[in-house]
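Morning!

This is the sequence you dropped in the shared folder:
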Amino acid sequence: MKILIKSSILLFFLILVIQAYTQTVVTVTVDLTKNTVPVSPYIYGKNNVLPNTFLSSGTNTEVSRAIAAGVRLVRQGGGNNSTKYNWRLKLSSHPDWYNNVYANDWDVAAQNLQNKLPGVQGMWSFQLLGKAAANTQHNFNDWGYNQSQWWSGVNQNLAGGGQANPAGGAQALVEGNPDLYLEEWTSDSTVGILDKWFGANGLGYDKNVIKYWDMDNEPEIWSGTHDDVMKTQCSAEEFMQRYFKVAKAARAKFPDIKLVGPVPANEWQWFRWGSDAISYNGKKYCWLEYFILRIAEEEKATGIRLLDVLDIHYYPGSQDPATILQFHRVFFDRNYVYPEANGLHTLNGGWDTSLNKEYILGRCSDWLTKYIGADHGVGLAVTESGINTSNSNVQAVWYASTLGEFMKNGVEIFTPWSWSVGMWETIHLFSRYNHENFVPATSQDETLVSAYPTINESHDSMTVVLVNRSLTETRNVTLSLNGYTIADGLFSMNTISGLGSSETFNSHTSNALKKTQVTAQNSQISVTLAPLSINSIILKGLRTGIQSDLKKPGFKADVFPNPTGKNAQLQFLLPEKISLNIELYAANGQLVEVINQSVFEAGENRVELNTGKLEPGLYFVKLKSATNSQTLKVFKN
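The structure's back. Tokens below.
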């Protein structure tokens, strides 16, 4: 018995040793010596936030959460419901509900944008199909049929006098007549909303907060979604001609408009228009390449800018959590083998399963450079997406990973369509605590652990988001900072993990964030990340590797440490050799000391500040040249 007990104890300790050995520390390096990338605020976006049926001084839960979470852009077109929108009559035709026509007031939604979400950008859609809702007199009586319950026949074309097929499915026994509930809708009609909203005699809306306009929605599947009008799918070139007409008309009315297209439905439609490639000038093209090519040709021929943001939709099918947690790699990772690649196999006109590395937005960037030029200035967007999971932690980590990749690669707009538990928490953590510029970072285990750091313009505050995608394992991480100095001590960390099935985000102060602290020593931090967790470390420090900013006008300066004790250091970066006055002022504006009056060389400079003699409180360091000045706050402990 004693032998068995001793053996069990030895086995137990052996298991502990093996586990400790196999729990490898992941080194993550944040590199401030490299160029930063501006983060678009519009990746913190959402579909369908604003109420469109009332104008009141109150608010609803969705708007309140959007404000608290830091939503920066709302896409309000309504997806497929935007395609037949009639802004004159304020009506839409619902393609997924018998084509019935219903009231839809974009004017009210746009007014609510300005009243309820100040500073938030709005996004609506133009109609390119050629038909728009005309009246509600010929709707299918869905209440009389089954008390307006959903069933498999909701896609039957029954508005306009159709007869339902009780067996279900999309095919009605008798289809309705679309001429009874729709009217012709030209390019002049669709862009007329710009006059109504922004024109001299219009509603007076601020066009600077409604700059983005989708060029309709998922046109390559109109023969399915809008088959009451388009029984046979129009050709890609016919769509391009419709696109050109609307884009030119919109640009003429609103030169600073942001035209967003072509808004394809999913992975197959990124590459295919219908079931085939597109033949053009003796060559076959996939849909997005053809779209970019034709935009480039028409812009060259007319001198009119026709595309500002290239936009796609994304709806993967997998329900496997481990697979879902890699879907953020679909957009830019040129080494990721995408298990749901289908349209990609047709890239070169045939069916080649060896083509399995998707990087769709990377491909679009390549095509934009190839056809329009390196300075094309076209942004990238994903305005609809959704994944198949009921696990709020998987949802949150996928969303965080995608936001991180979009920050890293300069994506302009991200507005997921499906919105599940975990997403409010995630957008709040990113939008409220991240900064304006993405910082390059590398991980030894990028598959499971990624870092998404951001830094503010003055370089004195950095937030490092660490994501652990492991479903079951903690990850020990050593975070190293290159080109950024922080003091030894404690720093705050916010964590999202262990979410339940119910919504936990209520406000900026009432949410599921777990607040802890991490210890820094010699500009390194060791931290343990829980499984399926998002962790945001908030750092204060001083950037020491900012040579990449030399081409920026003016000069940048930092004081470190701040708050300070006996001594501090002023660091500043100059674009050229200039004369500077450096002065210290008290909080009341009184000059305390002229610190330095010298000619400083271009590049990085440092000046010691003797703060030991100062009383505790707030002070200001002012740097002045002949053409520029900057004032920094300094807190003396």
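Headline: The CA atoms of residues 68 and 507 lie 5 Å apart.

More detail when I'm at my desk.
O.
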